Amino acid sequence: MTTPTFTIITVTWNAASVLKPTLDSIRSQTCTDYEYLVMDGASSDDTLAMIQESGIASVRVTSEPDSGLYDAMNKAIAAATGRYLIFLNAGDSFADDTSLARIAVAAEQSPGVIYGQTQIVDSNRRVFAQRHLRAPKHLTVDSFARGMVVCHQAFVARRDLVPQYNLQYRYSADYDWCIRVLQQSAGNNAYVGNDPIISFLSDGMTDQHRWASLRERYRIMCHYYGTWPTIARHISFIPRFIVRRIYERIKK
Length: 252
Fold this sequence. Notes:
Layout: E1 6-12, H1 16-27, E2 34-40, H2 47-52, E3 59-63, H3 69-79, E4 84-87, E5 93-94, H4 99-107, E6 113-115, E7 118-121, E8 127-130, E9 155-158, H5 173-185, E10 189-191, E11 198-201, H6 205-208, H7 210-225, H8 227-251
Parallel strand pairs: 1-2, 1-4, 2-3, 6-10, 7-11
Antiparallel strand pairs: 4-9, 5-11, 6-9, 7-8
Helix pairs in contact: 5-7, 7-8
């Protein structure tokens, strides 16, 4: 069999209430050069039935107990066959039907990372904001010293460069993982433009555990970028944090 360009990965556990937009988005992509890999944590709701009835021909499903989100992602990495990995969480989706086709054009040059912008949607799929951290036009490992400047779902990594997720991090292993991928890509990264490629559902695990996630990210920053530089950057983050909190209050 021909190796697909992309492995799209979704980790699920009792995700029936949010999964339909994800499945619809994948099925509607104009680019079909992908396999769809679902790592399910032994769901007891209608998740598996929805996947089987999705009409996605290239889907592969593994359903078994796991030790959490990142453990399931590690299993997916081991099972993937595509040249590039895309992690699309349940509830998240491609921004439009041509998103994967745009990513595929960039993949022709075989960069280490292909990345783009993310828009935020609510449970009714209404776009209410662009992500507060914008993906830079030129991405390096130092870019992540400012935080998660590229959303994990919009960070498409070449499979031969990817490590396993570090399971010591419960909420921010994706941040650590992206940094390690960027260390391997050595600046050979491709930006797909200003139009969003991913719609992120503002209802995820990191949103629900924000402070624990931020504490983990602080530890990761100190590890890769040094303690004192990280403290100095966090002081500079204060105005950004205040603006974001004001916006969230207005939105409510």
